[in-house]
Amino acid sequence: MSNSPSPPPGSQDDDTLAAALATQPVSGPEGPRLALKVDVDTYRGTRDGVPRLMEALQRHGAGATFLFSLGPDHTGRAIRRAFRPGFARKVQRSSVLSHYGLTTLLYGTLLPGPDIGRRCEAQLRAVRDAGFEVGVHTWDHVRWQDGVAGASEAWTRHEMEAACNRFADIFKEAPRVHGAAGWQMNRHAWRLTQRLGFDYCSDTRGTHPFVPLYEAEIMGCPQLPTTLPTLDELIGLDGLGPENVADHLLRLTARAPPTGHVYTLHAELEGGRLAPVFDALLAGWKAQGWTLVSLRDYFDTLSARDLPRHEVAMAAVPGRSGTLALQGGEFLAQFA
Ligand SMILES: [Zn+2]
Hints:
Structural class: alpha/beta
Radius of gyration: 19 Å
CATH class: Alpha Beta
Strand content: 15-25%
Distance between the termini: 25 Å
Shape: globular
Helix content: 25-40%
Mean pLDDT: 87
Bound molecules: zinc ion
Largest sheet: 5 strands, parallel
CATH superfamily: Glycoside hydrolase/deacetylase
Order of helices and strands: HEHEHHHHHEHHEHEEEHHEHEHEE
CATH architecture: Alpha-Beta Barrel
């Protein structure tokens, strides 16, 4: 938090970009790659949204990575965020109630929060068995999103280990990929991405894959940042709504950077009322020549040893309240 935040995606200076392009061959014979990362935040999203998304992805022949919330659904407790600046505006803009449903908004307040990993064990395994990559989003989404910024090492380790242990229980293997809830991280979480043995993580927003440094400390686990805005960030801003948001995103992907793209979608949105938008996106991306893949297939096209090192810092992005983990400038590039 101490140093200046990174430039937002798209405003990177030419030198950094040139260096990144020189070391980042993502385009293979199948054309440029766009990785689809599905964040699954709630019980309802897991139960209803995930099967709908699998059907859409299979219909379009697209790969994807599903990142699960594996513990209790305490979505209702997010109501505390209503007292933060910016949140009320976002609720109004993106009509939270219509996407999440009243029951979900009461979990952890008036209703006990259902244990997603226990209740949806069969559904989770069905995702893996259908050939999609699966990984860890979080243990308790609301607890992580609201608590991790100032949390201790013990708190952070407890949350990440609880999610990993539940994942191993369900899938009989350790998770290889982590994508932090709400793009919220702290120093301990960065270190744990390395210690918990993930092959790569997608905890950040940025422009291209990199090895992260947090306050000059190298974290050994590569980051595959989300490079495009999410639907909930776009809808309600600049005249964008469900009817034209797909066209807007497709304009952003019309020219393919050699490092490809990572798009984050939500089981509660693209797997719910915004399903037609997702359908239009998948069709549009295929028409633009993108190969739609999981984070694993995206990562496998990279030369992990040659990834540039970039600082990470917490900073704001348009359309989202608070700060999140952002890819910063290239670190000591002149000595590399
Ligand atoms: Zn999430």
